[in-house]
Amino acid sequence: MAEFTNVTISTKANIYFEGKVTSRTVVFQDGTRKTLGIMLPGEYEFSTSQKEEMDIQAGVLEYKLQGQEWKTIENSGVFYVPANESFSLKVHSVVDYCCSYFSEE
Amino acid sequence: MAEFTNVTISTKANIYFEGKVTSRTVVFQDGTRKTLGIMLPGEYEFSTSQKEEMDIQAGVLEYKLQGQEWKTIENSGVFYVPANESFSLKVHSVVDYCCSYFSEE
């Protein structure tokens, strides 16, 4: 099982959509940040302030980036969202994800 | 905000009750383990293999230990469950918790 070592984790959860989407923030020694999260079935819209990598570790979802078609990820897959953009999700089963944040545009 | 530093966190979530209860395992440098978790409204029964401390950081729930009455925790509070015992929960709002495990009985 993959793990992150020598990290700092805040004990307070990030809670969205009445708990249907929750995550924990993990900060690495180099100052970079990831969130480890869970999404329950449902439809959600998010927006980014930084470029994001969404690494789906388990579960089935469809995602739609601005100006693109819906695409499906089943159980593992990665997609990227540019900074300052919104994206839509249709989550079909419990999704376990890891989101990474990049300061470059 | 409280945080845990120099810890190891597994990237794979612990998922129970179809995602209504989920957690992440955090291992400390001394080898001890905690889980940071979320519980959505519902009724659950758990059982322990080690003595557990349930530290409720947010949310409202009632808990019932074997042979005891139901007790309520609102937004913050701690209860202990002996090893090898089951306990019941009635979760009334999204609960953010930290569970610690003790090897002594």
UniProtKB/TrEMBL annotation, chains A, B:
One Pfam family in the UniProt entry: Ppnp
Lineage: Bacteria, Bacillati, Bacillota, Bacilli, Bacillales
Entries under CDD domains matching the protein: cupin_PpnP-like
Gene this protein is translated from: ppnP
EC number: 2.4.2.1, 2.4.2.2
Reactions catalysed according to its record: xanthosine + phosphate = alpha-D-ribose 1-phosphate + xanthine; adenosine + phosphate = alpha-D-ribose 1-phosphate + adenine; inosine + phosphate = alpha-D-ribose 1-phosphate + hypoxanthine; guanosine + phosphate = alpha-D-ribose 1-phosphate + guanine
Protein name (database record): Pyrimidine/purine nucleoside phosphorylase
Matching SUPFAM superfamilies: RmlC-like cupins (SSF51182)
Superkingdom classification of source: Bacteria
